[in-house]
Write a structure and sequence with these properties.
Chain lengths: 288, 298
């Protein structure tokens, strides 16, 4: 049994690389996801993952299949959308979700257009699906660097970020850190999406960011515990997902995300924080 | 007076139109081909008498393609649409319906015995029939017959062009066979990204192994990659080859892990641009066999 679990990683370097890449991703993305969930911005991750497409496409057109170029392009595009949406929100009556939706849709259309115009070459969409089995040194270093940076920045802005989650008006009334905190946080969202898209693809990377975070909500009540549970869930999903891909002959990216999805379903049923099962099991009433 | 002048001018213009048919004969017949390799074959046979429009151009992937409105317009103006068939161009059926195409559809692989292969416990047909020069000859005769049926006046030209092309293909076949014969038998094994060279392997005795299936649409699983790495190590396969139409990152990973060197780029499903190393069907074979020989013989 233990051999069946460990052998694929002992025998094959590409499995080790995939695992290391996913673990690094799991350290950075799920904590960001926890804050997205708490701020009711879960769907923003999805929007942003589409927004980075044109940048990655331009990077591809300029430098070919180069990880740094595509990541840099994606980062610039993501930041541009975040900044523009933020600026519009602050200067007009439009709410942030609406302006974000507008900008990401424009960005996505631009991306698809660029892909199609150059589409007679290698299908870029295929490239953007990501290949966790083909992570090279450059990709691993990039993912690890982003994970490190994410944890550092989260540690620094942790307190204002928590306040911003629960009472943004209070934060902005007692401190001027509200806007910079919010912006730094959005930068982290973009960074993690960019770091993950070459491993899992632009669509799947949102899965490793949000599914563990949503799962964690069923197990923990305060934020620090939620982060711990989310990272653990992401680690487990990566590990089990890769093994499933290895033994059941399934594509790796979807296998990892589906494992995370299965974790969410199980947690929804038996999670100690409002899991469905506990709602049907009468508990002892509180007595004075 | 003015009016009279107008009539004279109109009459003269009508007279000019009268010679129209003679002028029309010089205008090439418009035909379409689904991808670059087939397009080149049609060009070789048609010569100056046909104008070939190709949907999926050089280095493009014919398995997955999103047609544009310009494609539909070109198709609607074409008299013949040449397709490979055998399930290669899944996107073509919709395009054909939506474009209002009224010409004839010619399947270039008609009369070819398709290779079947087992993929994920399902039997699928391998569409890459052009990778066997023997099949290439059947393509050429199919194209020739279709062109003659649509444009009987050009019969002599088409037959002459086709014959010339068939001779060149036969010559290339000898070249390929000689090149393979020079390779040591135990080194006649090649890793590529997707299963595009099944026909080539069957015809000329080289074994091809690929992590992706016959279509580029499928994503490789960890199991597939592990299987190939084990196989490379066990059988000491000397080289892996990239393809012009697919993502090369996975093969680079395999190469790093096994020490098998990257032998170069093979052209599988598309030609290179005209100034590249594989601008025509025959150049593609020349380039592929030279690349293979160089990597496998050393």
């Amino acid at each position: 049994m233990i051999h069946a679990i460990i052998d694929p990683f002992v025998d094959f370097a590409f499995m080790r690389r995939a695992l290391v890449g996913c673990f690094a991703l799991s350290l950075g993305a799920p904590p960001v996801g926890v804050f997205l969930v708490l701020r009711r911005l879960s769907l923003m991750g999805d929007a942003m993952s589409h927004a980075i497409l044109p940048g990655a496409a331009i990077g591809f057109l300029v430098a070919g299949l180069s990880v740094p170029a595509m990541s840099f392009g994606g980062f610039i595009a993501g930041i541009a959308v975040v900044l523009l949406a933020g600026a519009v929100t602050r200067s007009t009556m439009l709410r942030e979700d609406a302006s974000l939706a507008a900008f990401y849709l424009v960005s996505l259309a631009l991306g698809v257009m660029i892909v199609s115009v150059k589409g007679s070459s290698i299908d870029l969409l295929h490239v953007l699906f990501g290949t966790v089995l083909a992570l090279d040194d450059a990709a691993l270093i990039l993912i690890a660097a982003i994970a490190t940076l994410t944890m550092l920045i989260l540690a620094i802005i942790y307190r204002p970020l928590v306040l911003e989650c629960f009472d943004p008006n209070f934060l902005s009334s007692v401190s001027r850190l509200s806007t910079p905190t919010h912006f730094l946080f959005l930068v982290l969202v973009v960074l993690n999406l960019v770091g993950g898209f070459q491993a899992l693809g632009t669509l799947m990377v949102v899965g490793i960011m949000l599914l563990p975070a949503i799962t964690a909500r069923f197990w923990a009540q305060d934020i620090s515990n939620m982060i711990v549970v989310a990272v653990a869930a992401a680690f487990a999903s990566s590990f089990i997902g890769l093994l499933v891909s290895y033994y059941a002959n399934l594509p790796s990216g979807p296998a990892i995300i589906l494992t995370a999805g299965a974790g969410y379903l199980v947690s929804m049923l038996i999670g100690v924080q409002g899991g469905l099962l506990w709602q049907f099991m009468p508990r002892r009433h509180l007595e004075a | 007076m003015n009016r009279r002048l107008f009539f004279v001018a109109a009459a003269a213009f009508a007279a000019m139109l009268g010679v129209g048919p003679g002028v029309q004969a010089a205008e090439p017949m418009k035909v379409s081909a689904s991808f670059s390799i087939l397009g080149d074959m049609v060009k070789q046979v048609g010569g100056g008498r046909v104008e070939v429009f190709t949907f999926v151009g050089p280095n493009g992937d014919a398995h997955v393609y999103e047609p544009t409105p310009a494609d539909a317009k070109e198709l609607s103006e074409s008299k013949i649409l040449f397709i490979n068939g055998l399930g290669l161009e899944g996107w073509m059926t919709r395009l054909e319906k939506s474009s209002g195409f009224k010409g004839t559809v010619v399947t270039a692989t008609k009369g070819i015995t398709p290779r079947k292969m087992v993929e994920n416990e399902k039997t699928v047909t391998d569409p890459h029939a052009w990778q066997d020069l023997g099949n290439g000859k059947i393509y050429v005769t199919n194209i020739r017959d279709a062109l003659i049926a649509a444009d009987p006046a050009g019969k002599v030209t088409y037959e002459a062009n086709a014959q010339k092309f068939l001779d060149a293909i036969a010559q290339m076949e000898t070249t390929v066979k000689q090149a393979v014969a020079k390779l040591p038998p135990e080194r006649r094994k090649i890793i590529t990204t997707h299963d595009a060279f099944g026909y080539f392997g069957a015809a000329y005795g080289i074994e091809f192994i690929a992590p992706e299936g016959v279509s580029t649409e499928s994503e490789a699983s960890a199991k597939d990659v592990a299987k190939i790495i084990t196989q490379i190590k066990k059988e000491k396969i000397p080289a892996v080859f990239l393809e012009n139409v697919t993502d090369s990152r996975l093969l680079e990973q395999i190469s790093r892990e096994t020490g098998a060197k990257i032998g170069g780029t093979l052209f599988s499903d598309a030609l290179s641009p005209p100034d590249g190393p594989a601008g025509t069907y025959l150049d593609m074979f020349r380039n592929n066999i030279e690349t293979m020989s160089a990597a496998l013989s050393s």
